[in-house]
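Its record is retained below.
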Amino acid sequence: MSTKSPECYNTDPKAKCLRVEIVPGHSLLLHHDDFAFAELQAGEKEQSLRMVFAEHEVMIRGHCLRRIEAALQQMELAFICKLPDNQRRLIAEGQPLIREIVVTEIKPNSKRSELN
């Protein structure tokens, strides 16, 4: 049995893309070169991190997302996923926890479609 706590993100200094696991078995690769900007907002109960790429917007909600933002800033963010409810209690205090991921495709003419 593994004693390692589950993680909702991973970094790699050589990463060229961010792999977003929307749901188990459905992932999306977003090239770091297509990254436009990110916005972190802290609420009373949780944080939201909005990441905008050339053709997709990724919104994650959870706790302690500053580390994920910092990895994105360094272009080392390699992977993000939502943790299942039964694994959330295993996350140590102060560690990032992603509760929700919503990916929206940015289409020309401002039409958007969600991929969640």
